[in-house]
Design brief:
heterodimer, A: eleven-stranded mixed β-sheet, B: alpha+beta, eight-stranded mixed β-sheet, 17 strands, globular
Chain lengths: 344, 329
């Protein structure tokens, strides 16, 4: 059992309320870095001093927030209305178990049982505004004693392993956090490494933007978890990335064109080290790379991600070999990074 | 300017992959100021003033629209996505060129209704490969459109006039400019077509007081065009507003005044689709007074964009007039 992944994915940290994850990460890295601080947005920023051989300042980012829900009102029957925090797909929510607030109060997103649905209702998508979280309160007053408007809720999903896959919530992006923790726990790099465990990625790359602006690094690597869509389909349009085929490397997404010099450096490193990798299908999506790349006077940046199926839903699935390869490729990429790669 | 424009439009430079264009420009501008390249790849030429003027950023973007491979089929055809504003009705039968030199033909799946083109995801590129293994390109490779330079009378025809013509205007102005009171940063920016990203970063670093973008604008002078009071050959267009920016009214006034004083033909522009680097420059850092000198261009974002030689020359003149005189807004 990968205890680091278990601890990190079972912790709660819906965007804007990342304290539990932040404290956990702080305890994991504090003895392995030269200094750490928490900035006004809540980003955990740590500096691991270099061995003195390199002149670069490198930022490595992994966002610690996850998608989830926020309580917006308590109904007279004691059920809770809620809004999505980040991108949630309503059909994935019905009937799922959630934990509400800092005390992790259990609840369920209620669904009318099939016995009570007429034929038309069975084929209809239920809107988020028609869903409620049921914490078992009898009436409004009882619910209000236990939760407040503004409380976050997230899925209650335990971490499981089965063969070479792991199941759990919030691999996006605790998988990235886990890789960054392991990098910090290792030997110093030739350069000063600035680790940013950033907040509020899922609501608009907000944490990374301020962190990068404050650090002004020479280059940045973003560690992520990217949706895999590799199930059989009728047309030969290809999978964006597939589980088990190695780290996913970005070239272009909706928010960035990744620095071509860093992209080729990562590919070259992977080939030299015989680490498998796959190029994520260019097009949509976005990561903190977009915010970091254009912070201040710009930063060359690239993204390395663990592929995961069923992201932004109660249970996602990753391949543990992919995860291990992301860690190895990130480490090798960073150790071989020198100023000549960034010259023009 | 013809040779310069020809060299610039023939260079390869989809957004994010502007290296070839940058090298062409570097050779032209090296003797005329302090040259640097920023982290995103924008080329910046700093020409110092006498200390009495303003800090001015002049921006023309090096990148052009293009495509990127998303999937290679078993049979060796390429599926692709857009880099910047690529429209399906401009594609069929056109060609693209990859950095490695491979050329591909764009076509689409069978049209069920002849009057209706498919969306981008039903188009593909044929590079002449018989299988995935034979394909000279792979997922993540970028390509630019193929549209070689032609002169016909006073008109220049080519791909990527958007915005190599702006680059040509900036280079010519830099080469011809004598003393200026202003501290001028000529920025040849990257990644304009995907969201004016290069100019944003450059402006954050430079922190100009005045920002002037040089870019193309569409015209209203072709059959059935959207009504627009900009015509090819009637001079540089002074932008008042586009979708991303309302130009600083004092700067618009000043541009107009300089054109009138120097007898440079010009027209006023209100653009109802698209924007320029000036959008980013205006709101970068603590903000700046921004505007745009537009070079009228027909068929923008197609593989055959047309500009007028005199419009280009007059744009250079207008920019030189602005930079030679005080900019009091």
């Amino acid at each position: 059992m990968n205890e680091l992944l278990q601890k990190l994915t079972e912790a709660t940290g819906v965007a804007g309320e990342e304290k539990e994850v932040r404290l956990l990460l702080r305890d994991l890295i504090a003895d392995h870095v030269d200094e750490w601080r928490v900035d006004p947005m809540g980003n955990l920023i740590a500096r691991k001093a270099g061995s003195g051989d390199g002149v670069l300042r490198i930022l490595v980012d992994a966002h610690m927030d996850e998608v989830g829900m926020m309580v917006t009102a308590v109904d007279s029957d004691g059920t809770l209305r809620f809004e999505a925090v980040g991108g949630l797909h309503p059909p994935a929510l019905l009937g799922k178990v959630v934990q509400v607030g800092a005390k992790r109060l259990p609840g369920v997103i209620g669904a009318r049982p099939i016995h009570l649905l007429d034929a038309a209702q069975r084929n209809k998508v239920v809107k988020l505004s028609d869903m409620r979280i049921d914490i078992g309160a009898q009436k409004k007053e009882e619910a209000e004693r236990k939760v407040s408007i503004g409380d976050r809720a997230t899925f209650l999903t335990s971490y499981e392993e089965s063969g070479r896959v792991a199941l759990g919530k919030a691999f996006d992006n605790r998988a990235g956090c886990a890789v960054l923790v392991e990098l910090l726990q290792g030997e110093p790099f030739p350069f000063d490494l600035y680790a940013v465990f950033s907040v509020q990625e899922e609501v608009g790359l907000r944490g990374a933007q301020t962190a990068a602006f404050g650090i002004r690094p020479d280059a940045a690597l973003v560690l992520e978890c990217t949706p895999a869509y590799d199930l059989p389909n009728e047309r030969d349009v290809g999978s964006n990335v597939a589980l088990g085929r190695g780290p996913s490397l970005y070239v272009m997404d909706a928010g960035t064109i990744q620095d071509p010099r860093l992209v080729s450096h990562i590919m070259r490193t992977a080939e030299e080290q015989s680490i498998p990798y796959q190029i994520r299908q260019p097009g949509g999506g976005g990561t903190n790379t977009a915010a970091i790349q254009r912070a201040g006077g710009a930063v060359p940046a690239a993204t390395l991600a663990t592929p995961a199926r069923y992201l932004h839903a109660p249970t996602a699935m990753i391949n543990l070999d992919d995860f291990g390869h992301v860690r190895r490729l990130a480490e090798a990429t960073l150790r071989k990074l020198d100023a000549s790669i960034l010259q023009r | 300017m013809k040779e310069l424009i020809e060299k610039l439009v023939n260079a390869y430079g989809p957004s994010g992959f502007e290296d070839d264009v940058r090298e062409v420009i570097r050779q032209e501008v090296e003797p005329y100021g302090e040259v640097s390249v920023d982290a995103l790849g924008s080329l910046i030429v700093h020409k110092r003033g006498d200390g009495k003027g303003r800090k001015v950023m002049v921006a023309a973007h090096m990148d052009e629209i293009g495509v990127m491979v998303t999937h290679v089929t078993k049979e060796g055809f390429l599926r692709f996505t857009n880099i910047g504003g690529v429209y399906p009705h401009t594609l069929m039968g056109g060609r693209v060129q990859f950095a490695g030199g491979a050329v591909g033909v764009i076509h689409s799946e069978r049209l069920e209704e002849r009057g209706k083109v498919h969306a981008l995801d039903k188009h593909f590129i044929d590079v002449g490969a018989g299988s995935r293994e034979e394909s000279p390109v792979r997922v993540g490779d970028a390509a630019a459109f193929y549209g070689p330079f032609r002169q016909q009378g006073e008109r220049y025809i080519a791909k990527s006039m958007d915005d190599r013509i702006g680059c040509a205007v900036a280079i010519a102005a830099l080469q011809q400019q004598e003393a200026t009171p202003h501290d001028v940063y000529f920025v040849f920016s990257v990644q304009e077509e995907v969201g004016t990203r290069g100019a944003q970063a450059a402006a954050n670093a430079i922190e100009p007081e005045i920002g002037i973008a040089l870019d193309v604008t569409t015209t209203g002078d072709t059959p059935g065009a959207r009504a627009m009071a900009v015509e090819l050959g009637k001079g540089p267009a002074i932008k008042v507003k586009d979708v991303g920016m309302i130009a600083h009214s004092g700067l618009v006034q000043l541009m107009r005044q300089r054109a009138e004083e120097a007898g440079i033909p010009h027209q006023m522009e209100v653009l109802e689709g698209g924007s320029t680097d000036a959008r980013s420059i205006q709101i970068a850092g603590a903000g700046s007074a921004a505007g745009t000198i537009s070079i009228p261009c027909r068929y923008v974002h197609s593989q055959s964009e047309i500009v007028d030689a005199n419009d280009a020359q007059n744009s250079v003149k207008l920019l030189l007039e602005i930079l030679a005189n005080p900019i009091d807004l």
